[in-house]
Amino acid sequence: MNKRTFIKLGSAAAATPLISPMLAWASQEKEKLTNWAGNLQYGTEQLTAASSSEDVQRFVKEHSKFKVLGTRHCFNDIANNSDQFLSLKPQDKVIALDAKTRTVTIEAGMTYGQLAPYLHQNGFALHNLASLPHISVAGACSTGTHGSGEKNGNLATAVSGLEMVLASGETRTISQKDGDTFYGAVIGLGALGVITRITLDLQPTFTMQQWVYENLPLDQLTKNFDEIEAAGYSVSLFTDWRGPRLNEVWIKSRRDAEHKFNAEPEFYGGKLATRNLHPIIELSAENCTEQMGVPGPWYERLPHFRMGFTPSAGKELQSEYFVPRQHAIEAILAVQQLHEVVSPHLLISEIRTIAADNLWMSPCYKQDCVAIHFTWKQDWPAVSKAMPVIERELFPFDVRPHWGKLFTISRDRLKQHYQKLPEFIELCNQFDPKGKFRNAFLNRNIFGS
């Protein structure tokens, strides 16, 4: 990704707390709009908050170019533009909970942190959550954001319906009955229209436990990868790549599972932690979800960070790469060999598995994947040099980037790995023939102009 395109770093600048950008549109001082991490300054401060679907329709009809801003957790310019922004933050209510069909319909401004306790109180759950609960449901699904678990699809696989305002101002409802249109629209990258409502499939609520193991030897991972990943409902591997071991293994187990995890003192050479830990071992675990096998509801165990806390000040950069599950060990070892390039600039890496899906623009389209995530120190000059090196090592493994994080992979390579890209472009042209929702990111990575 070209530095001049969007990165404006200030090494001495304080990172913006998670909630402050949400209120920036109301500030009388017209402070600069930035993303959550503060690494991206948006191209305009013109932001309008819409309180209803009618407000959205009116705004769409009146503007020829704009983008929607959600919780601003993307680290690249996927939501950036220099004309206008629309915020749906005021629209954060539950529209309908249908116990018979096990679905919930919500407004597009709602976050997982708002939705999850409501569902639990009413006896329901989502199949998975990301590591942070602070992100908006619509934005997370639109970018293919995910949690972990070899049998769990990304968050967008819970979507069964969308309400969207198209470029014409027309409101359109899309469901699984619409076939290809649905599978192309769910991970829409903000290119199709303004999502105003979203319907999610649910399951009965459940209770979980979480354990952490320290210092699992790398050779044990390479020999027993499948067994380790199958140990829990959701498994996350954390490493700084500095040695032949994993710093931490987080195992999240459902108490109603047929084969519940039995927390022995040792797990493939890793030692059971005797206190709650942060993924970055030096940091306090105060903001992390409860560990040590203490039972709790699904939404208080699936994320790594607690809903009542901002997980960090945001002073970091993030990139993430997906490879097909069959290449997991080769890809992990390829990155391990780059430890001298990666480790000096890294806060922590997380390795997760995600199940295949049928969503056109998903990195997991038709293939189970392993995602290798990098949480970097906020040093763009160093990170911008490290990313292409990692990408080159992962090219032989059909690597795909996370749409909302930093990457430098070219459109030519993306075209090779997204077999439905031509159909997606055709769908975009149908929904938005004049390119109202396009921006530099979409032109660079999708449309090629």
What would you say about this model in short?
The chain has 449 residues and is an alpha+beta fold. Helix content is 23%, strand content 23%.
Describe the structure in your own words.
The protein has 449 residues and is an alpha+beta fold. The chain has 3 domains: 85 residues, Uridine Diphospho-n-acetylenolpyruvylglucosamine Reductase, domain 2; 111 residues, 2-Layer Sandwich (Uridine Diphospho-n-acetylenolpyruvylglucosamine Reductase, domain 3), CATH 3.30.465.10; 205 residues, Alpha-Beta Plaits (2-Layer Sandwich). The protein is 23% helix and 23% strand. It has 12 helices and 20 strands. Strands 11, 12, 13, 14, 15, 16, 17, 18, 19 and 20 form a 10-stranded antiparallel beta sheet that branches. A 5-stranded antiparallel beta sheet has the order 4-5-9-7-8. A hairpin with a 5-residue loop joins strand 7 and strand 8. The longest helix is centred in the C-terminal third of the chain and has 15 residues. It is globular.
